[in-house]
Amino acid sequence: MQPLPTSSYPSPAAVLELLKPITWFPPMWAFACGVVSTGVPILANWHIALLGVILAGPLVCAMSQAINDWYDRHVDAINEPHRPIPSGRVPGKWGLYIAGIWTVLSLVVASTLGTWVFVSAVVGLILAWAYSAPPLRLKQNGWWGNAACGFSYEGLAWVTGAAALLGGNLPGLEILLLAGLYSVGAHGIMTLNDFKAIKGDREMGINSLPVLLGPDRAAQAACAIMAAPQVVVIALLASWGQPVHAAIVAGLVLGQLLMMRKFLRDPIKDAIWYSGFGVPLFVSGMMVSAFAVRVFSGA
Q1: What is the pTM of this model?
Q2: How many CB atoms lie within 10 A of CB 8?
Q3: What distance in Å separates the CA atoms of residue 204 and residue 195, rounded to the nearest whole number?
Q4: What are phi and psi of 170, to 5 degrees?
Q5: Is there a domain that residue 196 lies in?
Q6: Phi then psi dihedrals of residue 46, to 5 deg
Q7: What is the CATH number of the domain that holds 82?
Q8: Structurally, how many domains does the chain consist of?
Q9: Is position 41 within any domain?
Q10: Which residue stretches of the chain have pLDDT < 70?
Q11: In this structure, are residues 18 and 274 in contact, taking their beta carbons and an 8 Å threshold?
Q12: Which domain holds residue 212?
C-alpha cells in the first residue's frame, strides 16, 4: 500500500477532483433552460447569465459533490480508495471545510442575483446537505434521495435561471410547470446511476431503487418516471399553441422509448448505455420546451 501524503493541505488538483466538474453540466444546462424560457434578451444580460451558470455548477453543484464525498469517505475507503478523501490527497477535515466554504460562496453569489435566486440557492444547499449528511441522509432511500437530486439538478436550477433573468422575481406558471415536470423525470435519470452499485449499496444499507425493487422493477419504474412527465409536457405545449415544439418533444420521447426497450431487457448491463444515449434526448426536450415557453414572456 502506498503511504498517504503527509501534506496538511489539499493541492488545487485534488480540490478540483473533489468538486467533480463532470457533474456540473445538468444544473448548468437546466439553468440555461431557465434563462431561455424567460424570453429576456441574453446578450444584454450575459453577465447575469454567466454568474448564474457559475452559481449552478461550480458553486452549488460542486459543493454537493464535496459534502457527499465527505460523508461517504468510509464507504469510498472500501470501494474507491483512490478518491481524493480516502486516498489522503484531501487530508484531515478539508473535505468538510471545502463544503462549508463553497456553501458560503454560493450564498454570497446568490444574494447578488435577487430574492428568488437567493431563496432557490438556499433550498438547493439545504437539499445537498440533507442528501448526504445525517440525520436525514436522504441518499439512503432511493425514492427520497433521487427526488432531492432531480429537483435540485433540474427544476430548481431551471427556476433559478429564470429568476436571475427576471431581476430576481418569481417566474410565471408555465415556467414553473415545465421545471416541475422535468424534475419528476430527472428522478428516473438518477435511478440509472444506481444500477452499477447494487452490490455495494446492498452491503452498506443504501436502499436505492434497484436494491428496494430489484433491477427489473427499478428499470420499469425509472422508464415510467422519465416518460410520463414528458407526455404531460407535450400536451401542455400543444395546448399553449406550440404544435411544432410539441411535435419535436414527441419525437425525442419516441426515441427514448425505443432505447428503453433495450435497457429494460438487461438494465444492469445497459443502464450506462441508456444514460449516454437516451438521457441526451431528455435534456434536449428541456431546451425545446424552454424555447416554446418564451412566448409567455412576450419574447
Answers
A1: 0.90
A2: 8
A3: 15
A4: -70, 130
A5: yes
A6: -60, -35
A7: 1.10.600
A8: 1
A9: yes
A10: 1-7, 295-299
A11: no
A12: 12-297
**CB-based contact 60:26 (threshold 8 Å):** no
Residue carrying C-alpha cell 434521495: 145
The Cβ of residue 299 has, within 10 Å, a number of other Cβ atoms equal to 13
DSSP state of 137: -
Q: Three cell numbers at 121?
A: 440557492
- How many C-beta neighbours within 10 Å does residue 298 have? 8
6 belongs to a structural domain: no
CA distances from 243 to 33, 237, 282 (A): 19, 7, 18
Scanning 169-242, the segments in alpha helix (DSSP H) are 173-192, 198-204, 209-213, 215-239
Residue 3 falls within a domain, yes or no?
A: no
> Which residues contact residue 276 at a Cβ distance below 8 angstroms, ignoring those fewer than 6 apart?
none
Rg of the chain over all Cα atoms, to the nearest angstrom: 20
Instruction: Give the C-alpha separation, 192 to 208, whole Å.
Output: 10
CB 154 within 8 A of CB 179: yes
Q: 132-188, pLDDT tens digit by residue?
A: 999 999 999 999 999 999 999 999 999 999 999 998 888 999 999 999 999 999 999
Residue 110 grid cell: 446568490
